[in-house]
Amino acid sequence: MHHFILSHQDSGFISADVGDNLTLQCSYEEREDGMYWYKQTPGQKPQIISVTYKATKSLSLVNEFKDNPRFTGETKDFVSHLNISDLQLSDSATYYCIKSNFYVFEFTEGVTVSVKGSGSNIQAVVHQSESIQPGGSVTLSCTVHTGTCDGEHSVYWFKNSEEPQPGLIYTHGDRNDQCERKPDTQTHTCVYNLSMERLNRSHAGTYYCAVAACGHIVFGDGTKVDSEGN
């Protein structure tokens, strides 16, 4: 079992296992009148986890998180701590802290948490074409096996790099024609491609595909793109 401690400066992507513990930290300034934690699962509307008001300086969990003993939090010395214990597959999402100052809201970069475990019957694997030349092109392919899950699924591409930017870069809203069902089984296999041309430094980073199905989301292992052609 691992315990991860992440500050809002650690924007990016982490992979954790079911049962791990996670602490998210976000600092705010005395002039700011509130701080909020949000959870964003691709394909769903953002969920507010907690509220911290300047007047009380205490973190209050809200909605379904208030009654979930795995979620706890505290605020100390203008640092908000959100603890998630015994991580579950359903905790896979991007987490943001949001600061408010007279109704002006500032989003942090956010951290995307991928929880791996045996309870999922979905698999996602990312491959890329072998040779990448500066100024050339690359195609990333995501192979999705949906197991016995018989519902529709959506595919999302995330990028993690040193450049501050949104992590979610592209969405496949529907299945394409590159899907096949294996005979005599419920297993679906689909392939989704993401192509990039005229590569430059801004393309460098690690790319992940994510599959939303059966009520939760699964992230692929990711593949690294180096625009320098190394």
Compact overview of the structure:
The chain is mostly beta strands.
Give your account of this protein's structure.
With 230 residues, this protein is mostly beta strands. The strands form 4 sheets. Strands 2, 4, 5, 6, 9, 10 and 11 form a 7-stranded mixed sheet that branches. Strands 14, 15, 18, 19 and 20 form a 5-stranded antiparallel sheet that branches. A 4-stranded mixed sheet has the order 1-3-8-7, with no helix packed on it. The chain is globular and about 60 Å long. The mean pLDDT is 77. The two termini are 35 Å apart. The longest helix is centred in the N-terminal third of the chain and has 4 residues.
DSSP strand tally: 20
Helix amount, in percent? under 10%
Order of helices and strands, N to C? EEEEEEHEEEEEEEEEEEEEE
Strand content: over 45%
First and last CA, distance? 35 Å
Cα gyration radius (Å): 19 Å
Low-pLDDT segments, ≥5 res: none
The general outline is: globular
Keywords:
230 residues; mainly beta; 1 helix; 2% helix
Topology summary:
Layout: E1 3-7, E2 12-17, E3 21-27, E4 34-40, E5 47-53, E6 59-61, H1 63-66, E7 71-76, E8 79-84, E9 93-101, E10 104-107, E11 111-116, E12 123-128, E13 138-145, E14 154-160, E15 168-172, E16 179-181, E17 188-196, E18 205-213, E19 216-219, E20 223-225
Parallel strand pairs: 1-3, 2-11
Antiparallel strand pairs: 3-8, 4-5, 4-9, 5-6, 7-8, 9-10, 9-11, 12-13, 13-17, 14-15, 14-18, 16-17, 18-19, 18-20
